[in-house]
Design goal:
This protein is α+β, with helices and mostly antiparallel strands. Helix content is 34%, strand content 25%. An eight-stranded antiparallel beta sheet has the order 13-12-9-10-11-14-19-17. The model has no long low-confidence stretch (mean pLDDT 95).
């Protein structure tokens, strides 16, 4: 096992990894910017090192400073958390080149899954079902028009690099393709420095279903069921649940088996998430996240598996502590992402929190770095807390969630707690009929 782990991240994910390290008896080091000097992870870590000013480029993305911190403190492993450098293959290679262990998958998988064109090819070779689309990158509008006749419309032009909805444009008909193609390439170039795009059939009312997989270096591969992540705004998830209310037991078993088998064929190592679009009884692979997911707690709640602990153990060369037949799915779990944003305009609302009270009681888990007197910085992602609720079944879980939202206090800054209070009253949430377009096209559009 590791002697000391450096956590190269901030916020609730840094605290999550820190807690796992403490329970495993592994000393930890938190690196932080000057803006996070008073953060909860810094206060609780065994050691902390300031690696730069508030700007991410000068701190959490500053690879030389992170490596220097590892050297100064004697860390022998680096956990990248979520975001920042967690899916940066170059960073993973540099970490290894300096004699440290990168707690994550092998660089070849980070690299292949980070390029959406290569990811599709890899997925197809692993037997995963794909959305009908181009076999690879599309470089000219003439090529795009020719492929459009085969794939059919509406057509989605997607950036090969990046994510978060940037570099994605829809062509409803062939007449719209030239503008969508040009716009997607320009946006991708500006956002990611890469104007490579590819084409996919645009699905009308799909759901976003993802499967949690985990694999060790001894040939053991296990899936931990699926998560429903369809409540999204601008391709950003706001509300997730496990299991999905849309799938039957047979469908759940099938997609889990398919994802696990593909993971095995790829020779993947560590924690990963296979993401699919689901429509009319069919699954279509869209991407694989080669890291821990923000929404991993709901999987932990229904399986009893500590994903971060397993992730660390696997990176240390140990075997998974369980087999597929040991995994049982019990109850229902929902996660609400609480952001420092106005609940109607979604404008960021950084500022000092003078009153904070986390919801509690049976089946309630809060992942947050907030405390009374803490100032939410304006420099980073607006996520300030994850409210995770478990119940015996979905109805029980929703009832507990409603109660927990009413208890949760973050003042005086506006947050999306008010949005979630409205969401749990919505018919489509209560009956589970929502899809990835519902929040923007139905719920928010009615305001």
């Amino acid at each position: 096992m590791f002697n000391k782990i450096l956590i190269a991240n901030r916020g609730d994910v840094a605290l999550r990894v820190l807690r796992a390290c403490k329970e495993m008896g592994i000393p930890s080091v938190i690196v932080h910017s000057t803006a996070d000097a008073d953060s909860m992870p810094v206060r609780l870590a065994d050691e902390s090192v300031c690696i730069g000013p508030p700007s991410s480029a000068e701190s959490y993305l500053n690879v030389p400073s992170i490596l220097a911190a590892a050297g100064i403190t004697g860390a022998d492993a680096v956990h990248p958390g979520v975001g920042f450098l967690s899916e940066n293959a170059d960073f993973a290679e540099i970490v290894k080149a300096h004699g440290l262990t990168f707690i994550g998958p092998e660089t070849r998988h980070i690299r292949s899954m980070g390029d959406k064109v290569e990811a599709k090819i890899t997925a197809a070779n692993a037997g995963l079902p794909l959305v009908p689309g181009s076999p690879g990158a599309v470089h000219t509008i003439a090529e795009a028009k020719k492929l459009g006749k085969t794939i059919g419309y509406p057509l989605l032009v997607k950036a090969a690099s990046g994510g978060g909805g940037r570099g994605m444009k829809v062509a409803e008909t062939a007449a719209d393709l030239a503008e969508a193609f040009s716009s997607a390439r320009s946006e991708a170039k500006a956002a990611f420095g890469d104007d490579t795009v590819y084409l996919e059939r645009y699905l009308g009312q799909p759901r976003h279903i993802e499967v949690q997989v985990i694999a060790d270096s001894h040939g053991n591969v296990v899936h931990l069921g699926e998560r429903e992540c369809s409540v999204q705004r601008r391709h950003q998830k706001l509300f997730e649940e496990a299991p999905s209310p849309a799938l039957s037991a047979d469908q759940r078993a099938d997609i889990g088996r398919i994802a696990a088998e593909a993971t095995r064929k790829m020779g993947y190592l560590g924690v990963g998430t296979m993401e699919f679009l689901y429509e009319d009884g069919e699954f279509f692979f869209i991407e694989m996240n080669t890291r821990l997911q923000v929404e991993h707690p709901i999987t932990e709640e229904i399986t009893g598996v500590d994903l971060v602990r397993e992730q660390i153990s696997i990176a240390a060369g140990e075997k998974l502590s369980f087999a597929q037949e040991d995994v049982t799915f019990t109850g229902h779990a929902i996660e609400c992402r609480i952001n420092a944003e106005h609940p109607e305009t979604f404008m960021p609302t950084p500022g000092k929190v003078t009153a904070f009270h986390a919801a509690g009681g049976p089946g309630v888990r809060v992942e947050s770095c907030l405390y009374s007197g803490y100032s939410v910085p304006p420099y980073y992602d607006s996520l300030i807390a994850k409210l995770v609720v478990y119940g015996d079944d979905r109805a029980h879980c929703l009832a507990r969630l409603k109660r927990a939202i009413e208890e949760f206090v973050v003042e005086p800054i506006p947050t999306t707690l008010a949005l979630h209070a409205r969401l749990v009253e919505a018919d489509a949430i209560i009956d589970g009929s929502y899809n990835i377009r519902w929040l923007e096209e139905k719920f928010l559009a009615s305001d």
